[in-house]
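Incident review: delayed structure delivery

Summary: a single-chain prediction request sat in the queue longer than the usual turnaround. Root cause was a stuck worker, restarted by the on-call engineer. No data loss occurred. The affected request and its eventual output are reproduced below so the record is complete for anyone auditing the incident later.

Affected input:
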Amino acid sequence: MPRDYYSVLGVDEDASEDEIKKAYRKKAMEYHPDRNPDDPEAEKKFKEASEAYDVLSDPEQRQRYDQFGHAGLGQDGGGGRGGRGRGRGFHDVEDIFDAFSDIFGGARGAGRGRGQSGRSDRGRGQPGSDLRVSLPLTLREIAEGTEKNLKLQKYLECEDCDGTGAEGGMGGQNFSMCPKCDGTGEIRQVSRSVFGQMVNVQPCPRCEGDGRTIENLCDTCGGEGRVQGEESISINVPPGVMEGNYLTLAEAGNAGLRGGPAGDLRIEIKEEPHEHFERDGLDIYYDLHLSFPEAALGTEVDVPTLQGQARLEVDPGVRAGKILRMRNRGLPDLEGSGQGDQMIRVHVWTPQELTTEERELLNQLRGHENFQPHPSEEESEKSFFRRVSDVFS
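Output delivered after worker restart:
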């Protein structure tokens, strides 16, 4: 005589679907043949638990069983769900797979009853694509950090159906469990090899991995759960970014299909050319043009910096090509570990046209010793080694 299915699973007759599911998993884990090789009694109890679960997890089969007992299930006894009992394909393997995934950290199947898909009520859907945009910034904005408002042309979640693709949205009655995958959103194929059972899991082709089918599609989005539109967002750009850096905003890209997660928004930094400065890492370079008297006598000049005008003292006798350094006037490090400098490249301007008076003054200076070229000792050494190098090259 067949055993009572509730007793087989060790649950009360008013047990919920979740309680039945958990009880079955416990029994299946305990008596699974892989854990109990060469134990006929364990194999028998495993089959009993699978048969009991197959009936009690199906509302129609359970109702007939509650009213008529085993006689209400027909000739196949435990052949619930249209005769999938003893010869029900891979149903038992499916639930064992879920049970093991719960134990070893798999999120799918955790705490879900029969006919649910292990996801939120919004459905699985398909992920949206990432969105890439360019953001031009001035050097001052890079130095100080800035807040920018962007207008994006993208796929947005359909408001009329809450992104579900179904008429009436989340509150409607237009969803039904996918009959092909029983709401799991997945199709599993089991094959046997010398290494044991191999389970191949693929998205269900009928519901496209959603686990549900839609009876009436949303008129606004045509069942996609998303529409094309414009969205304005505000982003904070930290100081110290560089050309080619990316700022990534998670799930701010294109909306997914039928409740799927949105893609990411990837913002590529573009650096605009500056009127005065050239960037080299954290340092910036500025070209300072001096007259010959200023270079010879020394001077004080106002030079532009990223922080505003600053006074620079130029020593007498500065030469063209000299690099002067203004510390901490460059760009901040993105990680906050320091700041670059502003480098001043000195250029001595030579006039192209002279008046008669200017020409006479320069002619008077031409013969003075201090106005004759006098290479420094270091330059002389370089010149000597350069001549030696030329001889042997």
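Verification: Residues 75-123 have pLDDT under 50 and may be disordered.
Action items: add queue-age alerting; document worker restart procedure.
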